[in-house]
Amino acid sequence: MIGLTGGIASGKSTVAAMFRDLHIPVIDADEIAHRVTAINGEAYKPIIETFGRDILDANGAIDRRKLGAIVFDDEQKRKQLNAIVHPLVRKHMLQQKEQYAKQGKKVVVLDIPLLFESKLEHLVDRILVVYVDEQTQLHRLCERNGFSAEEAWARIKAQMPLEEKRKKADAVIDNNGTIEETKRQLHTCLMRWGVLEK
Ligand SMILES: CC(C)(COP(=O)(O)OP(=O)(O)OC[C@H]1O[C@@H](n2cnc3c(N)ncnc32)[C@H](O)[C@@H]1O)[C@@H](O)C(=O)NCCC(=O)NCCS
Ligand SMILES: Nc1ncnc2c1ncn2[C@@H]1O[C@H](COP(=O)(O)OP(=O)(O)OP(=O)(O)O)[C@@H](O)[C@H]1O
To answer: Where does ATP bind (predicted)?
Structure first.
């Protein structure tokens, strides 16, 4: 199990796509979190019970921007949301892991932004951190999500600093450069780990 982590908008999904191109399966914690918070998802009702119906959009779905504005501005509220969503994410991640094991997959990637924050290091054998400097992170996050600098900072500050995460990694991919440079670093790392042949 390779734990793929980093900060918000540091490039985890970009690297996850490179793993998929190599036919290495990826379990995506964000995708599971989106699924369980959708209408009829397991976390939908508990979230409304905790945060009220004001966080819903006209279709009755959770308005992610509204809920984001609440939880990234208030650590207590974020902890309440985490307490609802994270156990469900963990359950589904482990189920997917079991399925891949049954299929005989030798290498599986767990793409999980909060691997260190949630103390889930024990779930994986190697940890790969996708690193960018804060200015690049801020810029890419604002561009991708249409956030103001203030909205982007609130999200970056809700996570362990990337400088700390890179120190805890078994390998670091510096994603400040081009996608091609990132791909080269990934392939070098996977050859070193014996996942790819030279
Ligand atoms: C607050 C929500 C609705 C905002 O939705 P939004 O579409 O804007 O963001 P999305 O879910 O796509 O997450 C984007 C990134 O934000 C960061 N992030 C999300 N939740 C958190 C959190 N609780 N703490 C710190 N960072 C977080 C992650 O880096 C993630 O990759 C949503 O992030 C959420 O439900 N969060 C709680 C679940 C969670 O922790 N998910 C991430 C890891 S499983
Ligand atoms: N090397 C790169 N050069 C230019 N843009 C990049 C590079 N890597 C990623 N990006 C862009 O930066 C943004 C963030 O990348 P990505 O979505 O892969 O990050 P992420 O870590 O998965 O984010 P999140 O934590 O929010 O899920 C995306 O818009 C992506 O296209």
So the answer is: 9-14
Taking the C-alpha atoms of residue 30 and residue 5, their distance in angstroms, rounded to an integer, is: 11
Task: Tell how far the Cα of 182 is from the centroid of ligand 1, in angstroms.
Answer: 24
Question: Are 137 and 175 in contact, with CB atoms under 8 Å apart?
Answer: no
| Contact between 182 and 17 (Cβ < 8 Å) | no
| 11 neighbors 143 (Cβ within 8 angstroms) | no
Each residue of 111-167: pLDDT tens digit?
Answer: 999 999 999 999 999 999 999 999 999 999 999 999 999 999 999 999 999 999 999
Q: What residues line ligand 2, using a CB cutoff of 6 Å?
A: 6, 8-14, 30, 113, 140, 144, 175, 178-179, 182
Helices and strands: H and E segment counts in the chain: 9, 5
Annotation-wise, does 148 bind a ligand? no
Please check whether residue 124 is in contact with residue 110, taking contact to mean a CB–CB distance below 8 angstroms: yes
| pTM (two decimals) | 0.97
For residue 130, the CA-to-ligand 2 centroid distance in Å is 10
Are 175 and 182 in contact by the 8 Å Cβ rule? The answer is yes
Tokens of 115: 């691997």
Q: Which of 140, 123, 135, 134 shows the shortest CA–CA distance to 165? A: 134
Domains of the chain: 2-192 (3.40.50.300)
β-pairing, 2-6 with 26-28?
A: unpaired
